[in-house]
Amino acid sequence: MKQIAVFASGVGSNAENLIRYFSERPHAGRIGLVVCNRADAGVVERATRLDVPVAIINAADMQDADAVLDLLDRYSIDMIVLAGFLMMVPPFLTRRYEGRMLNIHPSLLPAYGGKGMYGRRVHEAVIAAGETESGITIHTVTDVYDEGKIVFQARVAVTPYDTPATLEEKIRDLERIHFPRVVEEFQC
Ligand code: GRF
Predict the structure, then answer these.
(1) In angstroms, what CA-CA distances link 79 with 44, 137, 140, 183?
(2) Whose CA is nearest to atom 1 of ligand 1?
(3) Is the pTM of this model over 0.85?
(4) Does residue 106's CB lie within 6 angstroms of at least one atom of ligand 1?
(5) How far apart are CA 47 and CA 73, in angstroms?
(6) Contact, 56 vs 38, CB < 8 A?
(7) Ligand 1 centroid, distance to 104 Cα (angstroms)
(8) Residue whose CA is at the smallest distance from ligand 1 atom 14
(9) pLDDT tens track for 6-37
């Protein structure tokens, strides 16, 4: 059974969705650990409520390769999933989990990716550019922001009536529908 760590910095809706999905399918995998860089992030409370252990690792502690790898080994983590994790993943982690780390990005990469492109800003940029479609990208993680191999994309129409908020809702729906299944099916 695949042991998965979810790294997240924010509200944690994707983390919660993943936890719930795998708790209903214990043969498929298990979210064994949530790693968060902010003690006050919503994801901490959500994971705790669902009985998933949470490790708070700030930017300085994230550089301590021995401590971070020890922690992941203690929980027998086979795979890492980034779900709104806003800190750069250090190279020792991308190396150790090469081909075993996925990220979700709320646009059709390579469009609207890269440094500074996260959350609502992505949807603001998509609308400002007059795009007629957007979507989600799930990709493997390398040392460069939002690069790596694209594993899955799903698309949604952007209408003239969409605002960043309504587009964000549509994107969250896509994430809710597809992300857990793609994580489950990812061979690593
Ligand atoms: C999601 O939109 C995800 O695509 C992006 O960050 C957001 C995280 O939201 N990478 P949440 O914390 O899972 O609610």
Answers:
(1) 20, 18, 11, 9
(2) 84
(3) yes
(4) yes
(5) 20
(6) yes
(7) 7
(8) 13
(9) 999 999 999 999 999 999 999 999 999 999 99
